[in-house]
Design goal:
heterodimer; A: 304 residues; alpha/beta; Rossmann fold; 4-stranded parallel sheet; 3-stranded parallel sheet; 12 strands; B: 295 residues; mainly alpha; 2 domains; two-stranded antiparallel ribbon; two-stranded antiparallel sheet; 11 helices; 71% helix; 3% strand
Chain lengths: 304, 295
């Protein structure tokens, strides 16, 4: 079994090879919805989150609170395009407008130029359809160039480690969608404590997701009494998964693991009481609503 | 409103200014590479790593010693320079008589090892580093909002670049250095300690990278991969400017920063490629680079 696999382009390629070799890929790190649509196959499970879930959580919440004109800063590869499209669809479906977008190369060193273009669009919301270092640098530069005075940023894929790197001063007030927060309840806190002791940082949804995927894979192997990939998948579909990461988890026929997602807001520095106390839970998005409905599936394995 | 190629003059001006900021980093890094290549004949692939070390030096000094940005601006490049001296004394020294390829492989390996160690220790998400209080805020130039810190970066880098150029091209010390590379035996016969001079030159070259790293820390996040992200572009800058040409690398660095900045407006998807397209064209037309001399 292959798990983690960051980067959507790599995830899609790995899924194809996994299918050829009849091995299971439980993808946690990649975000593109293509994994369970155009590029779905019986050996691919998409475990933690995807661009639909991110767009659906953050996009809808922002449009509903008045952020109805958007400009996208998009990472120019599969993931960014997918996130921009999914969020744009959500914005439009909820009555908002997309004014334009600029596509920047992956790992661009400097975002000031792209941000000035976003600024001149006069959109209320600058949607960051990128990830990791790109998101961090965009947010930093947006603060530096005074863009956050008149426009709001919407980070569409923001990990807690990114917030840690930015500092609450820079990130405060931002809305984001996450699949896991270490400080949710006793169970997540216990896991986070163990994780912190080894890694010296709190787990993000990818860290917790890899842990959960591995544990549930082993449980499914036990239940199936075999490590044959398809037998394991069949066993996993019968399981109702509730663990430190997945709440109300259910594996669908398109390979999508659905589970509760959370709309979070980044705390103000004054509200943060202890290290890594970063998020306020604004809403829990139930598993059935968080992900792309099966009716809209473009996966060839789904008979209509 | 006045327009240039379909975009407003104001936007045009601000993109040129932003390009200069990025160009400053290219200039400082390619200058260090040019100095090292010109005087030591080493293609220093670890240059990006030393830039990363400079930024991490600033972060470590702040986090563990409580020293401010201004201290870091002086101390971090010195530390990086010292590491460079150790590397030269213990490893590079043995490679001068061999083909360029060996120096390239050694420094590339060194870059991978150092980068890996920092990744292991600090992760890839990057560490925060604040802009120093004195330079916080921004100035309204009428056509754009220029953060004071970015203006400082351009000025600091131009001063450092010109000072380096002056020392190497116009002073007696610089004359020794240049003579030492042309004919080390003869210069040594005049009583100049050539090996030590070369060691210090390498230390200085990588200290320049460290200095650029400190300047970059408040703009980018301090990240173990920041060096490998920029170094390939910087190599292209050096090739375009002409390997070993000091003034050429400064001018090319600034110029390419501006060209890259404008590409981000006209065709953003190509902004990470445009430098390499220019490199290919320059190599076809002038294989020694814009400012290089045919050997």
């Amino acid at each position: 079994m292959v798990t983690d696999v960051l980067n959507s382009a790599v995830g899609i390629a790995t899924g194809k090879v996994a299918n050829e070799k009849k091995k299971l890929m439980m993808n946690v790190g990649a975000a593109s919805t293509r994994l369970t649509n155009e590029d779905c196959n019986p050996h691919t499970i998409h475990y933690a989150y995807d661009t639909f879930a991110l767009a659906n959580g953050t996009g809808k919440a922002i449009v509903k609170t008045g952020g109805d004109t958007w400009f996208f800063l998009t990472a120019d590869y599969a993931f960014g395009h997918s996130l921009e499209k999914d969020t744009g669809d959500v914005v439009k479906a909820n009555g908002g407008k997309v004014l334009g977008q600029v596509r920047h190369p992956l790992n661009a060193a400097d975002f000031s130029s792209f941000l000035l273009q976003a600024q001149s669009s006069k959109a209320k919301i600058v949607g960051l359809a990128n990830a990791g270092g790109d998101t961090i640098n965009s947010i930093k530069a947006a603060n530096e160039f005074g863009i956050t005075k008149n426009q709001s940023l919407a980070g569409l894929l923001v990990f807690i480690t990114d917030i840690h790197s930015l500092g609450l001063n820079t990130a405060q007030g931002m809305l984001l969608t996450d699949g896991f927060y270490w400080d949710m309840d006793a169970q997540t806190r216990a896991f986070a404590k163990r994780f912190f002791e080894r890694a010296k940082k709190m787990p993000s949804m990818v860290h917790a997701g890899v842990y959960s995927a591995t544990m549930n894979y082993l449980k499914a192997v036990q239940a199936a009494g075999s490590d044959d990939a398809l037998a394991v998948v069949a066993a996993m579909k019968k399981m109702k998964v509730d663990d430190v990461f997945l709440r109300n988890g259910k594996l669908r026929d398109d390979g999508r693991m659905i589970h509760d997602m959370y709309l979070m807001q980044v705390k103000k520095p004054a509200e943060s009481k202890y290290p890594w106390d970063y998020y306020t839970l604004k809403a829990t998005i139930p598993a059935a609503e968080a992900f792309q409905p099966m009716a809209a599936s473009r996966c060839s394995m789904i008979k209509k | 409103m006045t327009e240039i190629f379909g975009i407003p003059l104001q936007a045009f001006m601000s993109q040129i200014l932003l390009g200069l900021v990025n160009g400053s980093f290219y200039a400082m890094l390619s200058l260090g590479l040019a100095v090292i290549f010109g005087l030591l004949n080493i293609v220093n692939f670890a240059h990006g790593t030393f830039y990363m070390l400079g930024a991490f030096g600033a972060w470590l000094l702040l986090t563990y010693a409580g020293l401010s940005y201004w201290w870091a601006l002086v101390l971090s490049p010195i530390c990086v320079g010292v590491i460079g001296v150790v590397v030269e004394k213990t490893m590079l020294r043995w490679l001068y008589k061999l083909d360029h390829l060996y120096g390239l492989l050694l420094t590339f390996g060194l870059a991978l090892v150092l980068e890996g160690l920092f990744r292991q220790q600090f992760g890839v998400s990057g560490q925060p580093y604040q802009v120093p209080d004195l330079l916080k805020g921004a100035t309204n130039l009428g056509f754009m909002f220029l953060p004071n810190y970015r203006a400082f970066v351009v000025v600091a880098s131009i001063v450092v670049c010109l000072a380096t150029w002056y020392v190497i091209e116009k002073t007696k010390l610089g004359a020794y250095l240049r003579a030492g590379t042309e004919n080390p035996k003869l210069v040594q016969a005049f009583g100049v300690n050539v090996p030590r001079m070369i060691t210090l030159t390498y230390g200085f070259g990588v200290a320049l990278a460290g200095f650029a790293g400190v300047l970059a820390a408040p703009i980018l996040q301090v990240n173990p991969l920041m060096g490998s992200n920029i170094i390939i572009v910087v190599f292209a800058v050096v090739v375009i400017g002409g390997m070993g040409s000091i003034l050429g690398s400064i001018l090319t660095g600034l110029g390419l920063g501006v060209i890259e900045g404008l590409t981000k407006v006209f065709y953003p998807e190509a902004s990470s490629t445009v430098v390499f397209v220019i490199m290919a064209i320059v190599l076809l037309v002038r294989p020694a680079g814009l400012f290089g001399k045919e050997k």
